[in-house]
Amino acid sequence: MAEIHATKPSNWNVPNALTTLRIAAVPFFGWALL
């Protein structure tokens, strides 16, 4: 049961973090280029 509980957040955490980084990187790079 602990394994299933640990696998679900692990599966969701990586793509969630990448999406958050991409969303945060777009305005950051846009500001950096200006």
Describe this protein's structure.
- It contains one helix and no strands.
- It has one helix at 2-33.
- The longest helix has 32 residues, at 2-33.
- The model has no long low-confidence stretch (mean pLDDT 76).
Give the topology, please.
Elements: H1 2-33
Q: What does the oligomeric state look like here?
A: single chain
- Helical region count? 1
Could you name the ranges where pLDDT drops below 50 across 5 or more consecutive residues?
A: none
Category from helices, strands and their pairing: mainly alpha
Strand content: under 5%
Radius of gyration: 15 Å
Give the N-to-C terminal Cα separation: 50 Å
How many strand units?
Answer: 0
Helical content band? over 70%
Shape: rod-shaped
Strand-and-helix sequence, N→C? H
The major pleated sheet works out as: none
- Arithmetic mean pLDDT: 76
Which features would summarize this protein structure in a list?
single chain, 34 residues, mainly alpha
Task: Offer a concise description of the structure.
This protein has 34 residues and is mainly α. Helix content is 94%, strand content 0%. It is rod-shaped.
